[in-house]
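Is PRP placement plausible here? Inputs below.
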Amino acid sequence: MNNDIEKILYSADDIHEVAKKLGKQITADYADKNPLVVCILKGAILFMSDIVRQIDTYCELDFMSVSSYGNAQVSSGSVKIIKDLDVSVEDRNVLIIEDIIDTGQTLQTLVDLFGHRKAKSVKICTLLDKKERRVKAVKPDYIGFKVPNEFVVGYGLDYLGHYRNLPYVGILKPEIYSEN
Ligand SMILES: O=P(O)(O)OC[C@H]1O[C@H](OP(=O)(O)OP(=O)(O)O)[C@H](O)[C@@H]1O
Ligand code: HPA
Ligand SMILES: [Mg+2]
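Reply from A.M.:
I modeled the complex. Tokens:
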């Protein structure tokens, strides 16, 4: 599987360092706020598990599964909720954890939804921000890395369901796409 990677953009060490830095900021910003930290499955699973271990204040965790890409490299534009949260966001300080903001359609849908459900505040922490492709004006509050306009895989991000388990973020060799 590692052989399919053309270039590593962010190594496991790079990601660990950035999670530490963001965790410190989140700890300071959310002291005494008991945030509801929401992982957007599946992509954010690895980032969630790393970032919450860097947050040194009381918080609760919940998980939501949404999908808009399926097996494609471009968003279908419609965001499907596959699994909703277990708890109510009403009057809660919600911190959304994402792997990547690309067009912004996923996050825009969720920010609108949590607002509609009367969350007290909604902030976004994303490992990657692919700003060039934005069609919705979503602004993350915590950003790991600004990523170039390329399809990336690893550390939660998939191509056809694979590569989520790579410990780093990289770009696939062009022949991998032509084989599919
Ligand atoms: O900003 P956008 O253009 O909406 O793209 C970003 C979203 O797309 C990917 O999820 P996907 O829908 O592929 O589901 P997955 O997390 O289960 O892979 C990614 O994990 C983000 O959640
Ligand atoms: O660059 C990406 N890679 C994998 N999944 C994605 N979902 C949105 N953008 C991406
Ligand atoms: Mg996702």
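Short version: The chain has one domain: 12-150.
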